[in-house]
Structures are given as C-alpha cells and as structure tokens.
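User: I'm putting together notes for a lab meeting next week and I want to include a structural view of one of the chains we've been expressing. I don't have a solved structure, so I'd like a prediction I can at least talk through. The sequence is below, exactly as it appears in our construct file.
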Amino acid sequence: MALESDAGAIFIVLLMMFLFVVFVLIAYVYQSLSLYYIAIKTKTKNEWLAWIPIGNLVLMANIAKMHWWPVLLYIPGIFFMVLSIVFAIFENKILEMLFYILSYAAMIAIGVYMIIWYWKIYENVSRPGYWAVVPVIITSIAMFLVIIGLIISNVIVFWLGIIGIIIGVIQQYVYLGLAAWHKDSVQKKLTKKR
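Assistant: Thanks for the context. Below is the predicted structure for the 194-residue chain, given as structure tokens.
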C-alpha cells in the first residue's frame, strides 16, 4: 500500500517537473520569436541574438538603443550567489548573508535595466512604454501577497498571490507579442515623419 502511494507521489512530482520544463521551453521560444521580429521591425542588426541566452539581453539593449554593458551584472550576481552558498556550507552566517545581499543587489540592478530596455523597446515600435512597468507592479503586489499568505498561514492569500504572479508573467508576454506582431507597430512612426 505504501509503495503505491509513493509511486503515485513520485509520478506527480515528475509530471509537474516535465510540465514546468515544457512551459519554460515554450516561453523561451515565444520570447525569442518576439524579440527576433521586434529586431527586424526596428532594423536592429544581429537579430539572431534573440535565440541565445544572455545574447537576447544584449539584443534588447541594442533595440532600446542603449548600452549593453549592464548584462555583465550577471557575473557578480552569480559569483556572489556561489560565494553565499560556499559560506553557508561553512556555516559563516555573516558572510553568507553579505554575499546573498550583494547577489540580489546585482540581480535587481539588471532587472531595473531590463525594465528600462522594455520601456524603450515598446516606444520604438509605437507602443506605450508603461507596458514595461505594469506587469512588474502586478507581480510585485502578488509576491507581497504570497509572503503575507506564508506569514499568516492563509492559503487563500497565498494562492491569490500565485495567481497574480501568473497574470503578471502572462501580461508581459502579451505585451511583447503585441509589440512584435501588431501590424501598426512601426507604421505610426513612419506616417508621423512624412
């Protein structure tokens, strides 16, 4: 009896992992296609970078007509995270927390640059720049609900937060798709210049 329930639990975990991987792959292909078509619309060189991890961030900076160097913030972010794990193994709580904070500071900085890049990308294809901020606000409020739900042990608040996060992510992909495939994205700019 116990073996059957263990096998069922393992199957459910494996199924959830498989579905998560499929979702991540679909999201990656969708985002890459969107950036690729936006690069073509804006006549940005090296549109093939849309398909390369980290390279797609360089392409975003190029489409936004900004510097690409903030992508390098991933290096200290990952390095400090590894150091945080090393110090956690050696049970040095002070250095673990210090490098953990430094890692998240680097990741937050790259996140801010990405929001700015998205804002400028949307404006470059005649879409509202605030589209870059709305999903971030929704996701931030949802993350707050998740944390509150965990603190007060309220399942409803927790799941409202999870649903809010999903809505924020989907909203970002919808905006990206509208920027990439909406037929009037660049024509408005061209007609204004004439």
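A couple of points you could mention at the meeting. The chain has a mean pLDDT of 89. The CA atoms of residues 4 and 10 lie 10 Å apart.

User: Perfect, that's what I needed.
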